[in-house]
Amino acid sequence: MDAVLDGLADWAHHVNWIYFVSIPIFTGVIGWLINWSGLWMLFKPINFHGFRVPGLREIAGIMPRKVQEIPGLMEGGVGWQGIVPARAAKMGSIAVDKVIAKLGTPAEFYAQLEPDQIAEHIVNVFRPDLPQLVHDVMMREHPRLWRDLPKPVRQAVIDRVQAQLPGVVKTITDEIGVHINQLLDPKIMVIDHFRKNPELVVRVFKDVGQRELNLMVAFGFIFGFLLGIPVAIIDVTFEIWWLLPILGVFVGWTTNLLGMWLIFDPPEEKRILGIKVQGLFLRRQDECAEVYARIIADDVITLERIGDFLMDGPRGDRTRQMIATAMRPAIDKAAGPLRGAVNVAMGGRRYDSIKDSFAMEAVGRTITPFRDADFSKQQSEKIRVLIARRTKELPPKDFVEMMRSAIKEDEWMLYLHGAVMGAAGGFLHVGLFVWHWIPGLPGH
């Protein structure tokens, strides 16, 4: 035992302590820079910045799959795009598969929007335009007949159409509700929106997890400093110049690894040596759920976007046809006692043409109130409450997947970046303290 103590004392006596302390301070600063720049790599730039290299796209096609994941490479570009915005569509897909599909069906989301209130809003918006719509259709399809009708008769037709309007709109909103699972595809809607708006995905990460991201940067210094202590012991013991760059690779890789672990792992609370351990992100699940729900309800699954998808999405033709079909019986009722006379005057085929024309004109106007931004925002509160409640109920493992799955396959880039910066930091320290790039600094 005395020999060991004597050996330690002799080792300590020969150590240049200024040099020794400089190593963990150096690794701490490098650790901070690694995590800070790693976050920059995650989120910026929103769009690809770089240049195209002729032939690179073809070469990239035969490279290992991991290499192909580097943003821009498969398009033949050399440069960078933030990992999160580059994977925006992928995150949209995962958000639906892992989370939104578990939060509710299209029918549940639609029910939260209160179709009866939607119907009432459509009637209020549509009613003032109805007289002009009837007039425009009749003047286009049979102007002479419409002009020849006495004014009271024309007004009677308009009044009957307006009287039928609430019932027709109620039928339409009910029909949409019955078929909403076939008409609305949340996965396509979310993926398309995230792909077109990659900055929204960045906002999801930052708004939901900004506190944890800031902690990750701060802990970069702590992890780097602590890892630097054994590195310093090894370096001053063996005094081999290339040890620091090699150990820097380990420090850089491990610092990033520990940073990700700090935020996301373990998902479930565990006790290690009597201490409660859980990923920092998981400890705020309820708070994060509220933020996530607000973003999804305000920007992704909104009444306005549902209306756009129903009318202009891949199944828009079916929606339009369904609304037109619901309108036709109302037109017959609106014609009332005039229907027979109109049939005689114009013929059944011409009457059907007017009916179809009116129905198709009404389709676009019926769905337009869905795009009322103020009304959409008002109704989105119900969606927000539903998503927040279901997100809070998610098992911690699924909650973590919501945020991490989109970048998990690309985390190796962050670890590699940490390793490269760690090695560079090691070479810089060697240059300053061993090769004396700046004269006067202490060496081994």
UniProtKB/TrEMBL annotation:
The keyword Membrane applies. Keywords: Membrane, Transmembrane, Transmembrane helix. It comes from the Bacteria. The chain crosses the membrane at residues 17-43, 213-234, 240-264, 412-438. This is Uncharacterized membrane protein YheB (UPF0754 family).
